[in-house]
Amino acid sequence: MNNLKAKQLFHNDHPEQANSKPYVKALIILQAKAQVYYSILANTKVIWTDAIPTGATDGVYVYLNKDFFRGLASDSQRAFLLAHEVAHIVLRHPQRGKAFLDRGFFRQVGSKTISYCPKMFNKAADYVINADLIKHDLEFIPDGLLDSDISRDELVDDVYMGLVNDNDDQPPNLKRTMTMTIKMITLAVAVVAMVTHILMALAMMISNQRIKMILISLATMTVRLTTHLILWRTRLARA
Predict the structure, then answer these.
(1) Which of 234, 5, 7 is closest to 123 using CA atoms?
(2) What is the pLDDT of residues 102-120, one digit of tens each?
(3) Residues 226 and 123 reside in one and the same domain
């Protein structure tokens, strides 16, 4: 990947992260569970930058926010993030998005011109990529996009058209209500995830086996609740 002539968008603010334990552990998991993605990442320059909030790619470089990466709940989630950005490179989403922008539209369907929305195209790509990564047994990041009706085998263009059609069918007031509901569910996911981590931390600290098992049981329930909230949010986002 590095032999491609492309301008690096952001400065590498934290190059030492390339040798950090969280990154190395994530690479080990990625190599074990998704070798193709690992091989591509090994030939891709990773830039640790404060200029973006999470992770991104321009199709040549992978950009990661150090605090977001290290703040993820597990090494498997960190491996998920790495694979997610590599998948965008593999499927050439940045290059295809630029092509759509340059020509001024996404697709011509009969006499109707389908406009191109970069945010919606990235959303469609995320649905397909995340479905694929879950099949690789990588741990899903709760704030990501996931839909049980969208599989890893679907074309991103078809998912995009589905999102466009769904969006066209919604009246403005409903769209605003849905947006507010999705934001509230996202907040709930964050709160429940925090409660889960607290319960597990307490379970590790307490020696009383009965109390420990109660805490672990409660943590398991909150994990299930998080999963249901994420699926509900995803369905609302597509509705």
Answers:
(1) 234
(2) 999 999 888 889 999 999 9
(3) no
